[in-house]
Write a structure and sequence with these properties.
Elements: H1 3-10, H2 17-20, H3 34-42, H4 47-66, H5 73-86, H6 96-106, H7 117-128, H8 134-142, H9 150-162, H10 166-178, H11 184-213, H12 221-243, H13 263-266, H14 273-276, H15 285-288, H16 327-350, H17 353-365
Helix pairs in contact: 4-5, 4-16, 5-6, 6-7, 6-16, 6-17, 9-10, 9-11, 10-11
């Protein structure tokens, strides 16, 4: 038994859990609080520590609802920061993606936070946890969120570069520089690194294309391939000869003869016997150039439904149709949207793991699924 397994089996308390579970820790740019990290990692083996973490998360979410200060975004940022450190492995059960979505949806229409760098960073962190961040960047572009900051153009351009859309990434860098996004030096430095990467990628593509045109020399493998190909051709010829029957014992080729004669055409008085046996004789030039000799008759077995004509005093056509909107239903939908804003946070507050996992998976696939339709990009 290795020392790590022996230590885990002993269930001893220590302050060095970081050394034992470091592979399960998701890195953060700002670093981590080592004391909180050790407590979070020790909660894997201690039910009481895990319960205390869930209680702290619930209290932070309640603090968001009870906040009455001048900066309503600040309690959201504190909750997000604590969840990132208390749940180092991330995952769906942490509820971080749900909190991201609730935060950005709460302030997307607020003019105060459209140019707030803190709010933009929440959007970008939310985009990193989604399957396709293109939807989020399109939303930010359509609603003019974060366009004065260089980090917006850098993140958007890097996302397009990851999709091998180099021209779109270059246009985004140029757009940010033309709009004088701040800090400008950070944006220009990122643009220079992007140009170096794009030129290296172009050189690699050119070298690969040149190598494809060069003749490939190989000793032994080519001969083996040719020999195998020759053997395969010989075996296929032998099988073909076995399957090919002898010319003297060929089966007779049967010609299909249609014994069914068109009875209706034979009973017509104008049809001749030659017409009934048209497969046996070609007939004269006039008969070969004919079309339909059947005489038109009245259709008695089929009735076509008649369209009723316009009645007297009927409705007149108008240029447009007015859609009736019930005010009571509109108020009900508004109330339902307000209730939906806090429903997901209520699930995180109660600590329902299955509901949190299900909502997180849905948000990863469609990060704007709970947003109102009028806010989505068209």
């Amino acid at each position: 038994m290795d020392p790590e397994t022996e230590f885990l089996a002993s269930k001893k308390e220590t302050g060095n859990e970081w050394e034992l579970f470091k592979e399960n820790v998701r890195p953060l740019k700002r670093g981590r609080n080592i004391r909180l990290l050790n407590d979070a990692l020790a909660s894997h083996n201690c039910f009481h520590l895990k319960r205390s973490l869930l209680d702290n998360r619930r209290r932070l979410i309640e603090a968001i609802d009870k906040y009455e200060g001048d900066d309503p975004l600040q309690p959201w940022l504190e909750c997000i920061k604590w969840v990132q450190e208390a749940f180092p492995a991330g995952g769906d059960s942490s509820g971080l993606v749900v909190i991201y979505e609730q935060c950005v949806r709460r302030f997307w229409h607020s003019q105060r936070y459209k140019d707030d760098l803190r709010y933009l960073n929440v959007w970008l962190e939310y985009a990193e946890n989604c399957i396709d961040a293109q939807v989020i960047f399109s939303f930010l572009d359509a609603n003019d969120i974060g366009k004065t900051h260089s980090v917006y153009y850098i993140a958007y351009a890097l996302h397009m570069e990851s999709k091998s859309k180099m021209k779109a990434a270059n246009d985004l860098f140029s757009l940010g520089i033309s709009r004088n996004a701040q800090p400008a030096e950070k944006l220009k430095d990122a643009y220079k690194k992007f140009l170096v990467r794009s030129m290296r990628k172009t050189q690699v593509i050119n070298e690969d294309s040149k190598e494809n045109h060069l003749p490939v020399r190989s000793f032994g493998t080519v001969l083996a391939r040719e020999e195998n190909r020759r053997q395969a051709m010989q075996s296929s010829d032998m099988q073909r000869k076995k399957l090919k029957p002898d010319g003297n014992h060929r089966a007779p080729f049967s010609v299909y003869k249609d014994t069914n004669v068109d009875i209706t055409s034979c009973h017509q008085p104008d049809n001749s016997k030659t017409e009934c046996n048209s497969w046996l004789t070609l007939g004269a030039q006039a008969e070969r150039n004919k079309e339909n000799n059947a005489k038109p008759a009245k259709w008695t077995s089929c009735k076509i439904p008649q369209r009723p004509g316009p009645g007297v005093g009927g409705a007149t056509t108008s240029d447009h149709i007015e859609v009736f909107i019930d005010e009571e239903c509109a108020e009900t939908d508004t109330t339902r949207n307000e209730i939906g804003k806090s429903s997901n946070l209520f699930r995180v507050k109660q600590g329902d793991g299955q509901e949190i996992n299900r909502e997180t998976k849905l948000l990863r696939k469609n990060p704007l699924r709970n947003f109102p339709p009028n806010s989505l990009p068209r």
